[in-house]
Structures are given as C-alpha cells and as structure tokens.
Amino acid sequence: MLPPIEAIFICLVYYNMIEVTKINGQPMVLNCDLIESIEAAPDTIVRLTSGKTIVIKESVKELVERVIDFKRRVLSLSVTAPAEAFEEVSDQSRIG
Prior knowledge:
globular
C-alpha cells in the first residue's frame, strides 16, 4: 500500500535537500534545485541561482552523484504514486 499523498509531498520537500559539508567542517543541507553551477578550483565552489556561492569539502563528482540520487528518488515517487492521489489534491485546491 502506498503512503497518502500528503506523505509523498512531504518526502519531495525533504528529499530536495542534500547534505554537504562546508569547507570549515560545518554540515549543512542544500536545495539541489537551486544549484546553477559547480566548479573545482581546487575546493568545490557551488553557485546558486540567487548568486550566493558556497565552498564545500565534497568533490564535484560526489555532489553531482548526490543530485542524481535525489532526482532518482523524486522520479521513483512520481512513478509509484497513484494518479487518483494527484486528482484528489487537484480537486481540493479548486475548493479553496
């Protein structure tokens, strides 16, 4: 049995965050949908769509792998979610 649609949306919000480590050793979570570019110079520099840059310990390859894993999780949720669940949410949004 699949989880209710609310749980699926909570998972989508949680899973768009990937864990990285700032260059100072401080862990943080990063919204991978906001990554504009990644550069190795020699530390990994992540540029976000907001213009902010973050220097992290993970390599470019490791960060890209984490983003790919995230996208796989999102796609697997969308494939396994029943169409009726999305119709129910759509119907509820028309009420309010």
